[in-house]
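INTERNAL AUDIT FORM
Audit reference: QA-55
Scope: verify that the stored structure record matches its stored sequence.
Auditor: D.O.
Record contents follow.
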Amino acid sequence: MDSAGRLELNDVENALRESATGLVSVMLANNETGVVQDVAAVAELARGVGAIAHTDAVQALGKMRSVLLR
């Protein structure tokens, strides 16, 4: 995480390379800090190693237009 609480994608990529990972789970929006993670980028990294991507997006429902449109 950076100082704002966002995932460092380079760290995610390195972690995925260093271990056998089957599932990556990321919150879309943090209910306490309001930080929004780049879930699409994390999912792409997970797919690259054959892992399943999961996200908890309930905190963003009704707050982020893109969540409502999908």
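Auditor finding: record pair retrieved intact. Strands lie at 23-27, 52-56.
Action required: none
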